[in-house]
Amino acid sequence: MKLASHYHIAMPLYEWMERISHREYLTRLAWLDEQWDKPDRTDHYLMQLCMVVRQILSKNPKAIKLEHHELKFTRKVRKVLTKEQQAAASTSFWFGLVGMPPPEDVFAVQPEYPPDPLVDE
After folding, report:
1. Tell me, what's the pLDDT at 52?
2. Calpha distance 93→100 (Å, rounded)
3. How many Cα neighbours within 13 Å face the side chain of 61?
4. Distances from the Cα of 71 to the Cα of 39, 66, 67, 68, 86, angstroms
5. In whole angstroms, what is the distance from residue 17 CA to residue 78 CA?
6. What's the rounded Cα separation, in Å, for the pair 39 and 46?
7. Is 37 within 8 Å of 72 (Cβ atoms)?
8. Whole-angstrom Cα distance, residue 90 to residue 106?
9. What are phi and psi of 99, to 5 degrees?
């Protein structure tokens, strides 16, 4: 909770929206993304603890290093979509949500009716 209060995360949403701008929010998210692979003091203590436990339980304790216990996080990089692709994805999503085909698919397949015997062609 101290970490959340330090970064002004532990507050109601309306206070959060009043305190920071959208640009500051995006900057904080980018900073937190960069911090994933940089262990802090607590992470180092936990890594040392795991290393000691593994050294006690292993036959060759000198082969176990602190670097073996460091976790690496990877994130998928999202592909940037053009405005047209975003609009098409949004339209497809919302039409699918309500159970309708997207507008371009409505007229793509015409139903086949049997010929009307009363109409001369």
Report:
1. 93
2. 10
3. 8
4. 9, 11, 9, 8, 35
5. 26
6. 10
7. yes
8. 17
9. 85, 20
pLDDT bucket at 82, cuts 50 / 70 / 90 = confident
User: Smallest Cα–Cα separation from 102: which of 119, 89, 112?
Assistant: 89
User: What does the alpha-carbon distance between residue 91 and residue 85 come to, in Å, rounded to a whole number?
Assistant: 10
- Rounded Cα–Cα distance for residues 49 and 66 (Å): 10
CA distance linking residue 45 with residue 63, whole number of Å: 19
The pTM (predicted TM-score) of the whole model is: 0.42
**Nearest Cα to Cα of residue 55 among 47, 73, 24:** 47
Q: Residues with Cβ < 8 Å from 64, sequence gap 6 or more?
A: 51, 54, 55, 58
Distances (CA, A) of 107 to 10, 79, 110: 51, 30, 6
Least confident of 42-51, 92-101, 110-119: 110-119
35 vs 101, higher pLDDT: 35
Does the pLDDT of residue 112 top 80, yes or no?
no
- On whether the CB atoms of residues 34 and 28 are closer than 8 A, the answer is no
